[in-house]
Amino acid sequence: MVKRIGIDVGGTNVKIALVDGEGKIIYSNSVPTYAQMGYEYTVNNIKQAIRDLMKETNTDSKDIEAIGFDFPGQVDYKTGVVKLAPNIPGWVNVPIAQMIEEEFHIPTKIDNDVRCAALGEMKFGAGRGCENFICITVGTGIGSGIVINGQLVRGAANAAGEIGHIKLQMNDGPICGCGDTGCLEAFASGPSIVAMAYDYIRGGKSAKFREMAGDGEITPYIVAKAAEAGDPVAKRIFEIVGTYVGMGLVSVINLLNPEKVIVGGGVAEAGDLLLDPIRKTVKERAMAVAGNSVEIVPAELGNHAGVIGASMLGS
Ligand code: ADP
User: Fold this and answer.
1) Distance CA 41, CA 46 (A)
2) DSSP string across 198-241
3) Which of 141, 205, 257, 262 has the highest CB neighbour count under 10 A?
4) C-alpha 61 to ligand 1 mean position (Å)
């Protein structure tokens, strides 16, 4: 049986899994990233996690076809170097694929996290059988992986898919984490849901999410729960956010004419609260042929998309 290792590197934790040729997770574990200790420390923890995985699953290097990593940031797929990962300080020009290959003698590839999620969805999730689709994730930021003619699109400098930085406003607009203004992500990510929630409270609107959060912080999760409980303000927030995401997607759908848009990421756990306004906006605003033929569906692999997709890199 084919076995591959997928490693999903995040700002807080590194998830590691042994995955079979059907995309089933045979073993999984996670170790803290502790980026503040320097990247060498994290790499050593990852190496130990790989050794632990092999011990626990009775495998060694010759049983494992490949190792794949995903990172939330800019990576060079061809050379296996992490260029910059804004949420993992210190990971600048780190030749991670070479470091792992030298240690384990297993071919190692790396890619961006949302692209890996798209690859996972294409092989084993909502993208099965699709030649042309976009996988968009809505969480702290908004990213996407693009599949055209059955192939991931990486772009000239491995930077394709930055849907969160489609400009929805030409002049001014909210400031985005990228340093520009008017980006989709600055209007519609998790932090903008939270900012809107506090604005409504300041404006004196009665809002259930304040009560539900108690003394704690309001999160997109709490706003979604309040909307599910019928709170009109919370429902309105998801309508606004879904409309913005839909507007960003309209441009992509007009440009690429995908069969499907697969929506994942933490905020997409809100389900139809987010998907319905996206569908409505696409129906109303995309050009007729592309807009009528696209299906907007939830991601299927959830939390595991990263490790499953990463394990399939180069397959
Ligand atoms: P990140 O983008 O930081 O990697 P995620 O994609 O997991 O992380 O998104 C995290 C966000 O998803 C959090 O802000 C959280 O409140 C939100 N979230 C989690 N579950 C839900 C839910 N059911 N409905 C709406 N938002 C949710």
Assistant:
1) 9
2) HHHHHTT---HHHHHHTTS---HHHHHHHHHTT-HHHHHHHHHH
3) 262
4) 36
Going from the N-terminus, what domains does the chain have, and what CATH number goes with each?
A: 3-119+304-311 (3.30.420.40), 129-299 (3.30.420.40)
Per-residue pLDDT of the chain (315 residues; tens, 9 = 90+): 899 999 999 989 999 999 999 999 999 999 999 999 999 999 999 999 999 999 999 999 999 999 999 999 899 999 999 999 888 989 999 999 999 999 999 999 999 999 999 999 999 999 999 999 999 999 989 999 999 999 999 999 999 999 999 999 999 999 998 899 999 999 999 999 999 999 999 999 888 999 999 999 999 999 999 999 999 999 999 999 999 999 999 999 999 999 999 999 999 999 999 999 999 999 999 999 999 999 999 999 998 999 999 999 998
Q: Which protein residue's CA is at the shortest distance from atom 24 of ligand 1?
A: 270
Task: Give the integer Cα–Cα distance in Å for 168 and 206.
Answer: 30
3-class state of residue 158 by DSSP: coil
**Ligand 1 centroid to residue 268 C-alpha, Å:** 7
* CB distance 183 to 244 below 8 Å: no
Contact 244, 236 (CB under 8 A): no
Q: Which of 113, 140, 193, 228 to mutate to test the pocket of ligand 1 (most atoms within 8 A of CB)?
A: 140
CB 311 less than 6 A from any atom of ligand 1? no
309 within ligand 1 shell (Cβ under 6 A) = no
Longest Cα–Cα distance of the chain, Å, equals 64
Token pair in block for residue 13: 């934790």
